[in-house]
Amino acid sequence: MELDNVASATLLLPGLAWLVNGIKTLAENGLYSYSSLFPLPVELHTVSVLNISFFYVAVFLGVRPHKPLRNFTISCSLLFLSNAVYELIYGVFLDWKSLTVTLPLSLGGIALVVFLNRRFHFLTNDGKRILLLALCLVGLIAIMSSLNEAGFFEEMRLYFNGLTAKDPHNVLWILSKILSVWMFCPILAVSQGLGRE
To answer: From the CB of residue 60, how many other CB atoms can be counted at a distance below 10 Å?
Structure first.
């Protein structure tokens, strides 16, 4: 039992630290700022850091019964899949060449989640909840399409190539980031027994 507590605290600490850092950066530098993922040498948009860390903490603590390594694996696999799907859709609008990377990552993420679900039974088979996931995915695609229509991806190409200093990220982009991270929640069974509904 004590080993579980140590493992749980150790695996929870990075998520809490990133969440606190994201909140601090948001308060100091605003919505479109960047936050570090200490100790990793990576900086992400603060919105992404807050989404990822809050999702990680919520799933890690929320799945019952609480088993640290299992919950860590579930949290990380769903985050990997949600990010891969986001990048796949983003890449369709920004640059088709990115599909050579994002499509295999998305398929790998799906395979990983399916494999882990067979082992840990953390996803539900409830048709209404699966429909809600599908609606979230359609919503994400619709938001990306709206961003494309508004010229966001063209502005991103200019921004990435250093041809403009104006960061085109906006409220619709923030909504797309939030939806991409949380869209798998409807099919997540927080109690181990719910996965076989």
So the answer is: 22
The reply to whether the predicted model has a pTM over 0.90 is yes
- Assign 1 to helix, strand or coil: coil
Q: Each residue of 80-93: pLDDT tens digit?
A: 999 999 999 999 99
Could you tell me the CA-to-CA distances from 139 to 125, 131, 157, 174 in Å, in that order? 21, 12, 23, 13
pLDDT in tens, 18-67: 999 999 999 999 988 999 887 888 889 999 999 999 999 999 999 999 99
Q: Is 162 exposed, middle or buried (0-12, 13-18, 19+ CB in 10 A)?
A: exposed
Q: Where are the alpha helices (DSSP H) in 63-189?
A: 68-94, 99-120, 127-149, 152-160, 171-182
Report d(CA 27, CA 22) in Å as an integer.
9
Tokens of 147: 């961003």
Between CA 122 and CA 71 the distance in angstroms is 9
Task: Quote the DSSP letter at residue 66.
Answer: -
